[in-house]
Structures
1.
Amino acid sequence: MAIGTARGTHEAKARGALALVPDGVHLIGGDWSAAASGETIEVVDPASGDVLRRVPRGGADDVAAAVSAAAAAFPRWRDMSPTARAELIHRWGDLCIQHGEEIAILECLEVGKPFRGPSTIGERAIYFAGLADKVTGDTLPSARPDVLGITLREPYGVCGSIVPWNFPPSLMMGDVAPAISAGNTIVVKPPEDAPLACLYVGKLALDAGIPPGVVNVVTGIGGEAGAALPLHPLVRHMSFTGSPETGSKVMAACAQRLIPLHLELGGKSPQIVLRDADLSAAVPSIVRNFTNNAGQVCVAGTRLVVEDALHDEIVDKVAAEMAKVRVGPWYEDVDMGPLISAKQERRVLGYLGIGREEGAEVIVGGKKMSGDKFDRGFFVEPTLFDGVMPHMRVAQEEIFGPVLSVLSAQDVDEAVEIANGTRYGLGASIWTRDIKKAIQAAKRIESGQVYINQYGSAGVIGAPFGGYKNSGFGRTGSAETILEYTQLKAVVFNAGG
Ligand code: NAD
């Protein structure tokens, strides 16, 4: 969906959205404040290279101020009636829906993704608001008549959340909503490349009446503000979404402090197509699910695993579908935008070279895009590699760009073996009309979500999302998620004295 056809319309909307986030400040204890060091970092429009805004280059001092604010806000927030907490979080969700267009535009501006309508992150807040007063313990069996045992689920206290740049407001909400619904307070470190929508969503929490200090947003660079967060002595629980390499560092910091961690990492998700699949449904979905957000999606379906019998036909059809992918800046009626940064563009172009060197054949795309519309931004062609072998790096490593690798399998068994043959296990789709094969494969695939004849969990409310193997642990977006932000206490009453 384009946002106004006249150039002036999108520019006015962009100006309006940017005006919602003041320059050079982040949100600590309910106030906009500059970094303790006074330093800032630039946030750049990836379609043009223009500087959108400056945000504080927060460091350990800013993290400490935010953690203190969160610790001060915790007792009152914890002790508030869960119904009252739910009402405030619900109001926050309503405000996020009401201002969904502004949230989406900020995200489009800083990430480069095409505008597809207002943000729906408010629904996520409302889902978890509904769970706030349904966190219950158990009554335990007693071995003696005069003893009663129960369990209580209690919040940890101050939580930390580190968010990557591909879907910042939605991933922030995925951590914050369950954490605060359970009675915790939180400090969020948004990505340095795309912190603006997160700052605005944090401000909306205050507008909703959530007390200052419950949600804090500290901007800064990963190795500085990010590294300081899990190491702060008052942080009792961490959530991290990002690359396995950084996840491992955050986990080491949590290990040093002996605090729990919710970890959402990358993927190399397979889209398996069996010979009896409905290709008219499968092919558009396959293409959409590796070009969405220019492939910068942890659960992007970047390996196409096809039964031999179907190979030539599906490669032709996917190539034809890819020719329809329209690329351009966020405000045009396009399917794909630029990559987020020059760094990410170098990474993706590097993998295009690696694939060729390994002997994969480029069927479509394969290079940086050029022309007036593309020269100032980080645009890379959607690319189809055929003849990919399971051991190749383009079949094993997360590229995080619009690159699809085709792998052939003799039958469903080999397809599942290939699907399972990476370090990752986040999502997987199986396209077939044979329900028996679909069920068997779904059970054998090692991944946190499996989709049959669609890609993604659209249509399901509260589907747990998370990884097997190196894709992480912990589940986001489901009723179980709120329990991850609680600790279990057993209380024993002795009536006998
Ligand atoms: P990244 O790991 O570089 O950065 C993620 C976040 O960690 C950023 O906020 C960054 O500032 C911070 N960070 C960087 N170094 C840090 C350090 N030493 N200590 C603490 N924090 C640090 O990842 P990215 O490039 O921003 O995002 C891309 C990766 O994220 C991909 O691998 C992708 O698959 C993964 N991802 C996973 C999910 C999921 O839900 N599983 C969702 C989105 C992205």
2.
Amino acid sequence: MKTEQDSGTIGDSVGQETVLKGIAAASGIEIGIALVIGSTPDQPLSFYETASVSISEQDVPFELSRFESAMAETRKEILEIQNKVRTSLNSKEAAIFEAHLLIVEDRKLRNEVISGIKENLLTAESVFSRVMQKYITAISSVEDPYLKERAADVVDVAGRILGHLLGWKRTLLDHLPGQRIVVAKELTPSDTVMLDRENVQAFATETGAKTSHSAILAHSMRIPAVVGINGILSMVRNGDMIIVDGYQGVVILNPTPQTLEEYALKEAENEKIFNDLLTETQQRAETLDGYRIALAANVDDPAKADELEKYGAFGVGLFRTEYLFLKDHIPSEEEQYQVYSVLARKCGAAPVVIRTLDLGGDKISSLVNFMAEPNPFLGLRSVRLCLAYPHLLKPQLRAVLRAGVHGNICMMFPMLTCVDELDALYGMLDQVKQELRQEKVRFSEDIKIGVMIETPAAALMAEQFAERCDFMSIGTNDLVQYTMAVDRGNERVASLYRPLHPVILRLIRNVVKAAEHAGIWVSVCGEMAASPLYIPLLLGLGIRELSMSPVSLAPAKHVVRNMKYIDAEILAERSLLCSSQEEVRELAETFLKMIAPDVSDLNIS
Ligand code: PEP
Ligand code: MG
């Protein structure tokens, strides 16, 4: 028997096949076992597996304060439990928590961790795990049965402290117990970068929307994802069999044998279409009437740079460097220099556009974004953060300039609203160049500087920006968010997030005209560039370069190779005259069905 649930209605799903509707965030189909990650720990923490992570001297105070606050939080937690159980347990049982308190208050333990952080320059969790392992091994090996039992208390408290240091969720995500489909309330970008990629088959979350950064990451990692499924956490239990259909945006709980068979068939068909598309990747990205289009890659994980060739990317149109900062430490100038240089060498003459740090919004690093903001997408995000804290940006500017000697590196500033921000960034760049010259460090003097157009303010002032830079790239994910006043990660307003609204097309057109007037190049690097449905429109509006996740390049190239530029121009002209997204969508769908029916059926939106 089948039941169908709109995201919003929740019913009893035990044993029945239930279809849960959400938002298709990353295409693909996976069938597997659910691992439900709630907001509290439901699995013991494996602190034996915490790796040793080095820090620099200047990070020591930060690590010490993390350790102190983890101890304080744990103490508070134990006191709360103790208060709760005092009335329901006898005094002997309540005394267990006294023993737990003694552990968090133990001076010897605290001093050992503190000196370990200072002397060995390791993160708090690295030192803490080593110290605890030593204690637990010692206690477990004594003969006395009473003391032996105390080892369990130490494990319990140590797990709590480590949980605070790492975050419960992160520890689970980092070490999945095998191949699993992760079901969670939300996955932040920093959770997603830590995902145990070998074992995660797909994910399904209650919150999120198509262009939230976690969805973008899932897509680039080729992990099917459905987001914005209201109530999924209360319906799915650990160990349930589920299907994640990232094309249609549905999750099927307890599928019947017939559904499983249908899905296995569908998966095989889609795989075949995709593999056929891959055979075109080394062909030219040229329209039927001879217009060459540059198809570049968006890169968030430099370790995946090998994919560029496989998918036929012409260089890198957007390197989201903030993911380097969402791990466990702030990368030094030297580390960044190594990463950028490797990428530059790999791409040879093709451009590698390195975007400066774009933290904030939904990309929150506990190492940088110390202050919680009530409205982070409108807060101290991106270049605003960098201008406020030059010590964050300067090492990055130095690293990019230095790496410039190894290839065709370009630098791009995100999230600008006013030209004076750009002027301030140029000021900082000049300072950094001057320092490098004085230090006699080799760097590229004539690196090209680009500006991301992702706010309506910047789109409408594109002429002024164009006069001051070498290229522009339109970040449609944010441009749509800020123009439509719709949080790009909020499933509750996802239907109002409208990339095809004529107002967006007009803004894009304005930017293209400004670029043409200034004689500079302009690309699109937001998710619109990856959608077969939107590509003809973008080209018709005058865009000549698209940058997207490597896995999207094959369908994109197929679309380009099967259309005529003059037809796309007509499509764009007609779309600009429309008054709603629906009208534009209809035109774009008819166009795509005509030129690439297979890709249109794949439903890659
Ligand atoms: C965009 O906003 O379109 C963009 C490419 O930047 P990000 O998605 O990283 O915000
Ligand atoms: Mg953006």
